[in-house]
């Protein structure tokens, strides 16, 4: 065996976490290499919901428009429907994924981006193609076997599945983005909480023109309540649109204690027919696969020079559409830190903030996704559908809601309330955008001495912008000459950015005195950027002469409410903490 490959960062896995890590690192000019055991990128839809925060990441990395071109747009995502089959009775709908008018307004106020639906087999090529174009070395059919690490780097043994031989890759850092059965995470000994295999599910991908049942109520998801659908923890059979309105994916449960059924074409077609409810429509089953619902999260995301991201460290059902989004955001958090440590700008302590910042997010989304499964049960309860009964009894319960009786009226009210409560799964705007990093646990966030006011509204449902250190920079539309840009467009690009206004000259001098590449943005009348709507003045939470120092990932690292006579010293102390140099 010989070492014939050397790189700065080796990434195992080419899914959303691995591909976005490669893209960010190559965008920042960091040598990196991706190995994947598979001969191709994802060939099934898998993850799909893509929220505004992820689109902000893609915007900064220069691939937002390419992703949107592949995506189902937001306005076709949002009539989440509960029914007995696509051709059967409709029980109710939830305006979802930002399509409820008040939520849509909140989306527009929160971000310059729009959420959309990009199936994983369409997303991965966007990320990987851009990464390779910018310098990533990519190797298919290459299996990770093991690693050893020392004070200077990591030596990884891989197997070339084409040649059949093993060789080693020497890297300064290793990223395990190898999914829910991560061998890298296991080899790194990352401590895990929760459990795997709490329920069983089957994915069935098929082609069928279902326009007559879906085009008038366009949606990403159609939930079918049917006998047997509660097995597996999903709460109902799920018909998911991959491409409107001809390509689909069904999620169907099975009893995990009994093992997965024999996934024959005949079995898959029988499930498809049951959920469509129309035996006359031509159906072509393309694939079927079994998987388990997990509730597991890593308490630590790294061990020495080895870091893990994505499903390797947070494993959960697809509820809320959080999986690929959190995976992309993990890698975006890590990439700029690796870049600054590798080029000597920051000390290795900066890398400790990856676990400090992302592990609480991982735990939160695992909990939220599994909680959403449980929130489907009240829909069944409203129809007395959780007690053992014959299919005929369930249909009778569903029919009874149409009776002109007091009992039926109460049943209708319970059903409406139960369906409406699914807003916590389908419109959880706060879960998407309210992630904040604590200055108490992360040294890459500098406390400003003000008390944390918390959230005035439900933090899961409502995004609440803040310029507090540890929060994502608020979005506001500002102008530069004839251009209208988002405040988010003035930051990122792999650099720190200092934002100030009229009277903030001291902060500008302090930023320019640093050897670190800090972009400067001045917002105010007659300045490079102007605030014609007054939105930034309201959202910035600092005076014109104050300053915000924003990290490469768009998070506020430091805030000072006003001018400071010793601005150079204040900024130097803040950067010393952030960069692990104090």
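Sequence proposed for the structure above (582 residues):
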């Amino acid at each position: 065996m010989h070492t014939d490959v050397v790189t700065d960062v080796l990434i195992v896995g080419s899914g959303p976490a691995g591909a976005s890590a490669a893209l960010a690192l190559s965008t920042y000019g960091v040598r990196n290499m991706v190995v994947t055991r598979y001969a191709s990128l994802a060939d099934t839809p898998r993850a799909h919901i893509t929220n505004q925060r992820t689109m902000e990441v893609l915007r900064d990395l220069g691939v937002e428009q390419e992703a949107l071109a592949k995506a189902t747009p937001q306005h076709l995502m949002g009539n989440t429907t509960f029914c007995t089959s696509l051709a059967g009775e409709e029980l109710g709908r939830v305006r979802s994924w930002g399509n409820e008018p008040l939520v849509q307004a909140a989306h527009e106020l929160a971000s310059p981006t729009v959420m959309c639906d990009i199936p994983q087999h369409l997303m991965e090529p966007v990320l990987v193609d851009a990464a390779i174009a910018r310098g990533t070395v990519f190797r298919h059919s290459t299996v990770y076997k093991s690693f050893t690490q020392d004070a200077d780097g990591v030596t990884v043994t891989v197997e070339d599945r084409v040649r059949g031989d093993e060789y080693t890759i020497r890297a300064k850092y290793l990223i395990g983005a190898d999914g829910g059965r991560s061998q890298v995470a296991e080899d790194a000994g990352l401590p895990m909480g929760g459990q795997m295999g709490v329920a069983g599910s089957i994915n069935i991908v098929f082609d069928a023109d279902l326009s007559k049942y879906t085009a008038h109520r366009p949606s990403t998801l159609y939930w079918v309540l049917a006998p047997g659908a509660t097995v597996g923890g999903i709460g109902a059979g799920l018909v998911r649109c991959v491409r409107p309105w001809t390509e689909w994916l069904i999620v169907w449960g099975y009893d995990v204690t009994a093992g997965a059924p024999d996934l024959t074409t005949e079995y898959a077609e029988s499930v498809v027919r049951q959920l469509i409810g129309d035996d006359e429509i031509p159906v072509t089953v393309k694939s079927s696969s079994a998987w388990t619902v997990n509730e597991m999260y890593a308490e630590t995301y790294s061990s020495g020079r080895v870091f893990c991201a994505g499903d390797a460290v947070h494993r959960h059902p697809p509820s809320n559409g959080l999986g690929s989004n959190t995976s992309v955001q993990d890698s975006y958090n890590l990439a700029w830190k690796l870049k600054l440590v590798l080029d000597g700008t920051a000390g290795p302590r900066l890398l400790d903030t990856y676990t400090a910042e992302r592990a609480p997010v991982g735990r939160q989304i695992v909990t939220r996704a599994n909680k959403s499964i449980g929130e489907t049960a009240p829909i069944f309860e409203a129809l007395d559908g959780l007690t053992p009964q014959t299919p005929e009894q369930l249909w009778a319960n569903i029919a009874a809601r149409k009776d002109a009786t007091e009992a039926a009226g109460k049943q209708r009210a319970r059903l409406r309330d139960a369906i409406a409560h699914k807003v916590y799964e389908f419109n959880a705007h706060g879960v998407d955008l309210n992630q904040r990093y604590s200055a108490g646990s992360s040294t890459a966030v500098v406390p400003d001495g003000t008390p944390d006011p918390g959230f005035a509204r439900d933090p899961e449902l409502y995004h609440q912008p803040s310029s507090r250190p540890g929060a994502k920079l608020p979005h506001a539309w500002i102008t530069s000459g004839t251009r209208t840009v988002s405040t988010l467009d003035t930051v990122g690009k792999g650099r720190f950015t200092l934002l100030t206004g009229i009277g903030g000259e001291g902060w500008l001098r302090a930023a320019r005195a640093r050897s670190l590449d800090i972009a400067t943005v001045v917002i105010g009348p007659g300045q490079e950027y102007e605030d014609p709507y007054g939105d930034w003045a309201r959202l910035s939470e600092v005076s014109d002469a104050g300053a915000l120092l924003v990290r490469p990932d768009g998070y506020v690292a430091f805030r000072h409410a006003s001018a400071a006579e010793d601005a150079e010293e204040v900024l130097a102390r803040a950067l010393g903490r952030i960069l692990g140099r104090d």
